[in-house]
Every structure is written in structure tokens, then in C-alpha cells.
């Protein structure tokens, strides 16, 4: 069977990693979409289509032209604080666009793989299983939960992959992540303030990309938790980064979340139980040390 896969967010961290896995793949046609110009460094082996998530008529045309067998939806408004201060833009991108894409999937018989977040949970009782009750504490988490519920109610042919604290590197990134930010700051000798009261399982972008592609190829259905397997306070991750690149850990200062004065509250302890993904998708994430080593090799190639 030939897979016709439509990917959203192909300029993002996860999106670029998925393009790497699906371009030039046998029996697979990939249409990779993002807003603006294509920022993936490799142009062959797939078709790039420019499309803004808020432009519904454009998506109707893309579905009519390509008739995708699978939609992988990674694009989102991912800036949690911006979602807290601009509800209508967050709703347009993280809820309404998902509703419209879901209805197109239902109309064209398209299997949908959607990326969601640990921020659907309140962080009072992590690590979480797929069966635990969500209770978001900020607008971004609430919008991503609404999107999950819309998909679950409208198109049974879907998999929702929740993830957390992604790290990794690609050329021309939309935004940084904790690993790159800590490394860059410490390399420049800058002091950084890092939270002690938020606990997460850092997730290597390659691991999530592989799980997403597996879910797409197997036409998996239902909810899956996908993250790294090591759970730690975010400050420990920053210290690991210092240790790995032999940087001055005394520049890292402990703070609690309230002292950062961020517009959006963060759930304190999330973390995932990965058993379902391990059992049903054969998911086997890298260790943090392996993930940092991979990022290091990729940075060396980019900086050469
Ligand atoms: N990063 C995390 O720690 C994390 C944690 C939990 C869940 N997630 C979820 O994982 C998914 C991928 O995250 P990521 O870290 O790869 O995010 P990312 O690097 O910020 O990529 C998101 C992409 O969405 C695109 N986008 C935003 N608004 C758009 C619009 N109106 N039209 C078209 N494209 C638009 C962005 O485009 P531009 O490049 O042009 O800005 C960006 O390329 C998201 O669904 C996110 O909610 C991420």
C-alpha cells in the first residue's frame, strides 16, 4: 500500500526530524507543510507546500489535491506564555485549526496522528498514564485538551501522542529548547536561573519523531504517552548539560516557579509512564546521555 502523508509544522523541531525519516521512504509520498519558506536544509524526496494553519480554504485545496491517507499534525502555537496572553490566537491555531483538519480527515478517510502535551495534566501526581484524568492549569494546556477532545469525538481513526520538554537541534529553528539554551548560556559564561520545582521527562526530538512515524505507519489508534524515560527536576537537566559539555555549573542558580513571574502557571510534576507505547509501538527512547551525545554530534556538524 502506498502512504500519502501530509505533515504540518515541517519547519519545527519535531517536523524537521519527521521529514528526515519520511523523505525518500519507499511506498511513501510526503507533502511537508509549514508557513513561509521551507527551512529544512534538504529539498529532495518530498514536496513542500506553504500553508498557514488559519487558512482553511488552503487546507481544503491541499486535501482535494493530495487526498492524504495520513495527516501528521505537529504544528501548533507552542509558546505557553503567549497562549496565556493571546487567547484568541491560541484558540485559532490550537483548537479551530485542529477542528477543521479533523473534519477534513473524516471527509477523506485520513488517519490522523496528532501531537499533544503533558500540560493537559495539573502536575500534582506525575508520572501519568494515558488513563489519568487531565486538568490543565494554563490556557495552552486547556486549548490542547480541547483539541484532543474534538479529535476523539469526530474521527475515530486517530492516534494522539502526548509529549513533553522536547530537546534537539535542527538548522534554522523556530525557537530554542532547554538543552540548547543552557549550553549556549553557560558557554558564554552567563548566569542562568533554573527551576527546582518542575519535574519532567526530557524527550529527544528523534525519539518522538520515530514514535510518530511508527504510529502513522501502523495506523495506531488512541492515546499514547511519549517522552524520555528519565524523570528529573529541570535544574538537574541543566546540571547534566553543564557536566556533559564540561561547563561551569556554578553559573546555574536554583529558583522556584513563582519567582520567574511567567504569565502562565506550569504543572509541577508531570512525567509519563511509557508502558503502553513500549508495548504497542515498540517505543524505546534513548537515555539522556545518548540523546546529549547525538545533539553534540549534530551541533558539531552544523558548526563545522
Ligand atoms: N516543545 C515542547 O517541549 C513540547 C512539549 C509538549 C508538546 N509539544 C507539542 O509538540 C508539537 C511540536 O512541537 P515543536 O517543539 O516541534 O514546536 P516548534 O518547533 O515550535 O514547531 C511548531 C511549528 O508550528 C508552526 N506554526 C505555528 N503557527 C502556525 C500557523 N499558524 N500556521 C502554520 N504553522 C504554524 C511553527 O511555524 P514557525 O516555524 O513559522 O514559527 C513551527 O514550525 C506541538 O504540537 C507542541 O504542542 C511540544
Pick out its properties.
Rossmann fold, 40% helix, alpha/beta, binds NADP nicotinamide-adenine-dinucleotide phosphate, 10 helices, 304 residues
Strand order in the sheet with the most strands: 3-2-1-4-5-6-11
At CATH level 2, the architecture is 3-Layer(aba) Sandwich
For the record, what is the CATH homologous superfamily label?
NAD(P)-binding Rossmann-like Domain
The overall pLDDT average reads 97
Strand content: 15-25%
- How many structural domains? 1
Backbone CA Rg: 19 Å
CATH top level label: Alpha Beta
Q: Which series of helices and strands comes N to C?
A: EHEEHEHHEHEEHEEEHEEHEHH
CATH topology: Rossmann fold
Task: Please mark out the parts with pLDDT under 50 across 5 or more consecutive residues, or reply none.
Answer: none
Give the class from helix and strand content and strand pairing: alpha/beta
Bound molecules: NADP nicotinamide-adenine-dinucleotide phosphate
**Overall geometry:** globular
- The total count of helices amounts to 10
Q: Could you give a short account of the major beta sheet?
A: 7 strands, parallel
